[in-house]
Design a protein that fits this description.
This protein has 242 residues and is α+β, with helices and mostly antiparallel strands. The protein is built from ten helices and five strands; from the N terminus they run H-H-E-E-H-H-E-H-E-E-H-H-H-H-H. Strands 2-1-5-4-3 form a five-stranded antiparallel sheet, with helices on both faces.
């Protein structure tokens, strides 16, 4: 991405802190860098919580990775341990290939063996993790790539993205919004369908509430699940922390 484009997108994000439109700029940065997935995970609570999860290319196995991680693998994640030890108002950029020696063997194999099934040349090394600790949030802002990271190792730029993320999600968490933050990157209709599912409603009831055909609800649900990298109601509840 050209520096001028970076600055324009950063300016856009800064101008939209706390707004839904912030993610338009954030995800545009990820697209321009050709990331296959972008995530923001909060480590404030006992269990990690997804604040953002957006897939740019369909990878069904990504859902398995989430399940493994949230069901306990995160406890062995060096990134999790590192972020919990950082002082307030700090940002660190981690290129995973530079810290592979800190990954427990069982943890590394579990994830790398799954990742290479998606893209043979990819693995745990194709990942940039920005560890951000603010006044109220501990975040891991992560970008995944379908191959070597190469020129994306721009530490000052990633640090700025980390601080922007802190500003935004600390503001969002104070605003008391009516739906899980992980749904923010969806369209209004996709989000409405997911909220209906989280409320325990069937497709027919959601369709009636939205005044659309049940088939339309199915379409919105499919699009939402593809963006979130999931395929089931169970996984939706899991990433929403419900």
């Amino acid at each position: 991405m050209k520096k001028v484009d970076q600055l324009k997108l950063v300016e856009f994000c800064l101008s939209n802190i706390g707004e839904m439109s912030f993610l338009d700029g954030f995800l545009s940065i990820a697209r321009e860098l050709n990331a296959s997935q972008a995530t923001v995970v909060s480590y404030n609570e006992e269990k990690p919580k997804y604040l953002l999860r957006h897939n740019f290319r369909v990878a069904p196995i990504a859902e398995i990775l989430v399940q493994i991680y949230l069901k306990g693998a995160y406890k062995h994640d060096p990134i999790y341990k590192k972020i919990c030890s950082l002082p307030s108002n700090s940002v660190q950029v981690q290129i995973v290939s530079d810290m592979l020696q800190t990954f427990p063997e069982i943890y590394r194999r579990a994830f790398e063996n799954l990742l290479v099934e998606i893209v043979p040349e990819a693995g745990l090394t194709s990942k940039i993790a920005i560890l951000c600790v603010g006044k109220k949030e501990k975040l891991a802002v992560t970008f995944y790539f379908d191959g070597p990271i190469g020129e994306s190792k721009n530490t000052p730029f990633w640090s700025i993205i980390g601080r922007l993320s802190l500003l935004h999600f600390e503001h969002v968490n104070q605003s008391g919004q009516m739906f899980p933050p992980v749904l923010m990157s969806l369209s209004d209709r996709e989000r409405e369908v997911c909220r209906g599912i989280l409320s325990g409603k069937k497709a027919e009831r959601i369709a009636a509430d939205m005044d659309v055909a049940p088939s339309t609800v199915v379409t919105y649900r499919k699009r939402a699940y593809e963006k979130l990298g999931i395929s089931s109601r169970t996984s939706l509840f899991e990433i929403c922390g419900s």
